Amino acid sequence: MIVTTNPATGDRLAAYDLHDDAYVEAALAAAANAQKIWRKRPVGERVHLLRNIAKALRAGKSRYAEMVTREMGKPIVEAEAEIEKCAYNCDFYAEHAADYLADEALVSNASQSAVVFDPLGVVLAIMPWNYPFWQFFRFAAPAFAAGNGAILKHANNVPECALAIEEIMREAGCPEGLFATLLIKPSKVAAIIADDRIAAVTLTGSTEVGAIVASQAGKALKKQVLELGGSDPFIVLADADLEEAATVAVKARYINVGQSCVNAKRFIVEESIADRFVELFCAKVAALKIGDPMARDTNIGPMARENLMTGLHAQVEKTVAAGARLMAGGKPLDRAGFYYAPTVLDHVRPDMAAFSEETFGPVAAIIRVKDAVEAVRLANQTEYGLGSAIWSRDIARARQLAREIDAGAVFINGMVASDPRYPFGGIKRSGYGRELGVYGIREFVNIKTVWIGPAVAAEPAKKISEKAGAQ
């Protein structure tokens, strides 16, 4: 049984029975059968499902947002934005999927040759609690458009959201069996990954869990996309617009109560402007309103679980004990629920926990550096490589520095965010593979070469390259 807790109060919310082995077997069989039919439908027909999902999400936005806030504590305004973003993602792929999946002609020694994009099959999606709807629909919209089916294993603290996704899919007219939510223990996942009816796996979650799933999927030789942890640097150079940089920095750190892999976490600031930046940053943090996540003026709600709060506090205590200066917060709040005060740590060094570990909560680490060279070096001094940001008025210089940062994305004078118009993913221990954009829809397809004879005389590689460039 799964028992959920309201993070804003600590009170029990609801209890859910787990699905038994017979239910899981029936879901796998139904998904495999439904996907064999779905894959044969033209893309233009598949995207009708995406448009219907978008309509269903918008129609139920208030109700679904309240589920998110109730189960994991996200402020209600942010939860509503999450639902709207899911709908936009579906609309985006409904418009662009046919182009992204169109055959691509090749120049070769064949009379004709092309690359075609065929669906892989049923994909197991293992998803986290921090964006209960977005994490799934970010993957699902392109996956369904590409002709795949999906099985969802969601985090066990958001079962109401997981079941609501199943409701949305039914309401949108999803073919019966093509999608299912499974309420199961984590110990059941390995057998599902190994099942022949599962073609691939996508996981968003911790680096530790990602390594386990990668090993299980790798043993079965199945494709994976892993979007894992992050310790994103936010570099502020001496010529930056400090007012704007501080405003965006606070949002980048404290949105979703700091519980996102792609939150800015390490604020690397040139020494010459560090005092002024810290002053601005702390003033804006002090203005954040902590309160009931259902209230529309709340900026900071509770953390999702008590153990996350206590783990974060341990990291803060270790960092302060090692010599960092506590500028704000630094402790759980004396109230019901799992609230942690928005925290600012200054003079953080690379040997401190707030630098070397991922801090998954409302804690900002400020690191002072002498110049841009040191800023980039420290930005890369992490096992993670998800997102990053550079703030500077010198765009040409910032673009050069961006090429030196080891990350899946670099945002210059902006806040890192996922968006269907461009790819999203990381390197190093932040995972591999990409979601969103054209690259995301092509992760769960068979990129197949079709060669049609008879062969023609081979051409020099230079001519082939020139022809391909002309196309």
From TrEMBL:
CDD domains: ALDH_SSADH1_GabD1
InterPro entries assigned: Ald_DH/histidinol_DH, Ald_DH_C, Ald_DH_N, Aldehyde_DH_dom, ALDH_GabD1-like, GABD/Sad-like
Gene3D superfamilies to which the protein is assigned, alphabetical: Aldehyde Dehydrogenase, Chain A, domain 1 (3.40.605.10), Aldehyde Dehydrogenase, Chain A, domain 2 (3.40.309.10)
Pfam families: Aldedh (PF00171)
Residue intervals of the Aldehyde dehydrogenase domain: 3-450
Keywords assigned by UniProt, alphabetized: NADP, Oxidoreductase
GO molecular function: aldehyde dehydrogenase [NAD(P)+] activity; succinate-semialdehyde dehydrogenase (NAD+) activity
Cell membrane found in the keyword field: no
Domain of life: Bacteria
Family classification: Belongs to the aldehyde dehydrogenase family.
Name assigned to this protein: NAD-dependent aldehyde dehydrogenase
Species for this entry: Rhizobium leguminosarum bv. trifolii WSM597
